[in-house]
Fold these 2 entries.
Entry 1:
Amino acid sequence: MTKVSMTVNGKAVSVEVEGRTLLSSFLREGVGLTGTHVGCDTSQCGACVVHLDGVPVKSCSVFAEDAAGATVRTIEGMANADGSLGPIQQAFQDHHGLKCGFCTPGMVMSTAALLAENPRPSEAEVRHYLNGNICRCTGYHNIVKAVLAASGQATASMAAE
Amino acid sequence: MPKDGGIGASTVRREDIRFLTGKGRYTADINLRGQGYACFLRSEVANGRINGIDTTAAMAMPGVLTILTGADFVAMGGNPAGWFIPNRDGTPMKEPKRPVLAHGKVRHVGDAYAIVVAETLDQARDAAAAVEADITELPAIVNMADAVANPANRVHDEIADNVCFDWGWIEANRAAVDAAFDTAPHVTTLELVNNRLIPNAMETRASIGDFDSGTGDYKLYTTSQNPHLTRLLIAAFVMAIPENKLTVIAPDVGGGFGSKIYHYGEEAAVLAASKAINRPVKWVAERSESFLSDAHGRDHVTKIQLASDLQGNFLALRSETLANMGAYLSNFSTATPTFLHGTVMAGPYKTPLVYVNVKAVFTNTAPVDAYRGAGRPEATYSIERVVDKLCRELNLDPIAVRRANFISPEQFPYTTPVGLVYDTGNYKATLDKLVQIGKLGSFEARAKETARKGKLRGLGLSTWVEACGIAPSNLVGALGARVGLFDAATVRVNATGNISVMTGAHSHGQGHETVFAQIVAEHLGVPASSVDIVHGDTSKIPFGMGSYGSRSLVVAGSAIVRAMEKIVAKGKKIAAHMLEAGEGDILFADGTFSVSGTNRSKTFGEIAFSAYVPHNYPLATLEPGLEETSFYDPGNFTYPAGAYACEVEVDPETGRVEIASFACADDFGNVMNPMIVNGQVHGGVAQGIGQALLEAAAYDENGQLLTGSYMDYTMPRADDLPMFTVDHSCNTPCTHNPLGAKGCGEAGAIGSPPAVVNAVIDALHRAGHTHITHIDMPLTPSRVWSAIHG
Amino acid sequence: MHNFEFVKPSSVADAVKALAAAGAQPLSGGQTLVPTMKQRLAMPGVLVSLSGISELRGVCLADGVVSVGGATPHAVVAREAAKYFPALAALAGGIGDPAVRSRGTIGGSLANNDPSACYPAAVLGSGATVLTNKRKIAADDYFKGMFTTALDEGEIVTGVDFPVPDKAAYVKFDQPASRFALCAVFVAKFGSKVRVAVTGASGDGVFRWKAAEAALAANYAASAIAGLSLPSDGMIADLHGTAAYRAAMVKVLTGRAVAAS
């Protein structure tokens, strides 16, 4: 066992891990942050996306020891300081961008990474960027709307309904 | 304009707060003190005889707490089929035992034969690798034609022909239907496959068993759409635990789509293991296990025929289907290809004669059961594909042919030739709406634009009706169901006026916590924020039959309305007492009880408080408290209907199909929350497009699953889909439930696949490839290319 | 997965030393290796992470050659190679998805040599040189068939030198589930010479379509390959496409790559 320390959502944390402990397990079992979900075992579904030193990663495919000393941000770190929904989270609620909620943490984290890189993405850019996050509930329509809304773009005219 | 908070408002969902902040509580998020971790050993062969399982070395591994195998469950019962289906000759279906863990034989790749429990998950997995199972591989029976043709190879030794049942619906009409075909001016025939799908809720299955040796109580946390049924099946059929000693809790559940309706052996295994080690036992499926062991969906091979006159008036329809059951009968497996398929084969049409034959077949593959739509997508696909082919053969306009054959509004209630009574509908109205919102009149201009890009554009339609709101107990009882399909609700008004509603429905994405509160707010005139919805815990809820078959709102929601009617009646009694008036003179509106013709009134809150502070109640005639329970059993199925249009662009060089647009005009009856209804349609259509273009479970000839991960099973992703155009303004309210609602959960998945396939065939025909009359789903680039160039 | 000892050296020399241990295996981005280990198909005793070696990361241009460090993630190549070698940057930006591109590296991709991976097409198609801790290997000598390369045990890909072509493009047709290449073609033109590298199609992994190279060298236009066809022998046949389909796609995508370059 090795003690691994990192900064998660602004807090220093340390957990004893084995070599095989994944970052997703470190967060879920070690730190108790169960908002990061694991939906597959092939690095495909994206439910486990967190930010590692500012870039999105699939935490089920990174070993905890490889993230030693890093700065990690998870879904639990996305709300405003007063605990209210942050702007991306709020857009997902306003536009019904989630149903069962299981893929949602990864979607929100990927969205945050997208908007950091491309503050006003087109619909096609949003769809392309999110192709590593699988949602079985929404058909993506309202997720795309939520992302565009979070980027400050009008969504009313684009979706006839 | 939408109102704020009541029926008809697009209220944002309250449950989103926890899901968006990482505070959801899914089964895998729950950790009980002292829990052991379980993993399952699963068969690597499709058909095999278990000669022995040696756990000696594994038991000696570090941290191992217990290992149970199929032998430990021999004395227990089997997981039963929920529906009894008779053969055409009246004899009963074949019903093999489905044990908790395989014993004697393994019957599909992924069939679990042992559970290993250890202090940590990694220790459990390390020990599992040390279990020595001596299994002799037998020839695998993979496809249905082989299963029927080679009865010497058997999935179950005692079932000689691998056939579960051979069902005719309605058998008495068979001769008349055949006679109509013999004399029909035109017969269109189509052979098609309804591809096998894997549901793939994003949360894998998970269960925690927790036996309390102090009380003898069992508690099961599990990923279920249907906790009461799971309790009933475990208690009454599998483990013989008294029902009152077993609590089943389905906490936040990350999607179901049918796959989590059923009881699975892993649930009983973790309970038994917990009892064995006197500690909680937790199991979370890996995705690869889900692919192998969740109930799959669809998997029909069908020959369908439609007889008509030369003007396209339908005279008769008949179909023959082989339906794959997989290796065992999952709980709803026998109902899905029969009463959820055969009974809707009339579609929205007045075809006078319909006959459906379904032969259900065992194979060495994962069990197949209801997946979003369950039987109705299979029926709709067959009907709408053969209608489309008929229009091409007779060179008729597919819109005009559909209009001419629709049941007209004045014909309702309409008795179909396959045993249902449609209460209401207006199929012409939804089709007209579709023509408008889909801008079908300007298709040719769009086709020219597409041609400029070197691609082929096509337009496909689907008009459909389904039967859901499952279901009237008397009807399904007559059809072979072994359970009732009512639902229950308790409305508890607390002393301070806020309300807890205990519902038998289970929300795993549907938004019940928001929508049911809207309904209560509307009916009781209280703020929605004062209403809490409690679901998913058998210890808190009177009873329930869970959420599937678009039944939550129309059945469980109606139970809430009935319970609220009792609350209002009780409130009137209390008000009459408080206001010193006759009970018959009390009116209730907008949250206020008043005496007719006076300005004397009491608020809902005052009545609630009084109910719990009954200082001067006439106790002989008025009980304290304000809590009511209702069990609601519907009078009929509900019959949502719709008209869908899909436009595709086909790249003739690569065969790649892109969805250019998709429009839906639906009739869901009364709509409670338009935002949520639209979301249900989006999700359903995405799954239907997935079936049509992307998804298929494939086994090789040895019964190995070739699509056992997201590397090979194609899930629809954001860049596979367009924005959808949806409308539900043409609604004919359901006539028999108090909400006038029909249900919307399955519609998109039911109506969309034929629209997509019809659109691709249309695109190919417009480009002159008129020899292509059909391509089986999924219409992958390779398949479309092969049709064009092959 | 099996347990192992995790080592994270900060220099190539230390990594090479660590890899000399019995059962040691290098870990680059882990986007393929970690899932493989979960299935217990790979069971290293020591896992040597290359992600802490700063000398292995980065993209730079010198003398008409773009050099990419072996542990440079795809996302970095997509961003930093854009102004030097747009076709390479676009290829890197189309691998997997954004989270995969944050971790996956060029060295990991080349060491694995998945027959459907993107990078081998760029390396072979542009005639790049694979740099290791021991030597330089020409692209034409590096790829030895599906999941097989010229690398020795314990040898690390430290970088790749790409000569920058006059014109180049990569056109990928996705396998719809994995988003690897069902078939993809990298075309590069250097003066009068043309290289065409194909990935995703052949059971032997990435290969050069020399008939197309000759035709395009004579006439660099999509129409130049109209008369060619590729035999389907040896093409991958699976759920996602028949061998004949893949053979046909090679030609379609080559034409599109030429047009896009």
Entry 2:
Amino acid sequence: MVVIDSDVYLIELRYRRDARRAVNAAFLETTRSAMPAITIYNLMEVLGQLSFNLAPQTLLAWESWLVRQYHLTVLWPDPGRLSAEEHMTREIFQRPFQRMLTKRASFTDALALQLAEDTPLAAAFITWNARHFREKTWLPVQTPAEYLANRDEQKIQRSQP
Amino acid sequence: MEGKQNYVTLREASEYLGVHPNTLRNWEQRGLIRLARLPGSRYRRVPKAEVERLAGQMDFGLPDPTSERWVRDGVLMLLPPPDDAELLAKAEAQAEDVKAQLAKVEPQGTLEEAMIELRGASWSS
């Protein structure tokens, strides 16, 4: 599973003149079979950005054109046995604030990274701003271009006798 | 294309992973595993790389293939819907429509500007 940042979907859907668009699209196609995931925080960030320019009925169909189309698993924090108050305090205040103190993270960065780190199957966090995130998480961080290059390299190694 | 030696049968894969072959078929429906049909064969094969990937994931326990939800270690994972050719074609058409709707209102700044606004940091990695 790879956890994918908002910027990848914003380039795919919104910023189609971006020079990275072709690589971005190849990455999304490649990861379709590798259990791509997005945190609920990043999903809401994408929908929020697109809401300025999409008709409400289009926005309402997000599960089709976003989740189904890109085969996304959506990650949510699970409260387990915590009360709602304990869970909310821990998830939207204590843990992100700790990361802000130690890693200088924005609120969304902190929320998304903690959920990605909590996800047992997460093998990497994918974002176009990998340099920014490498200082803020222990998860491997790659750009879509790096992910594709690494995958090609692994293929070559596997094909060698 | 990868050679035959890079594939195993469904039965071999299921024995290695300790699951029923029908479970692998079900996982394919859910998009959790990629199966292949080799030229000249009507049977599905499993790429060895997929078996290795799944074996690694199974250390953590795979989701119940009949469930849309999977809770693990404090994270709730809402799995994507099973692949359905008709619904997927509709989703693809809707995604193209979304892109077309958004293209009509361009230009509206760059991704860099949007991410600075969202995250407060430069996005030029």
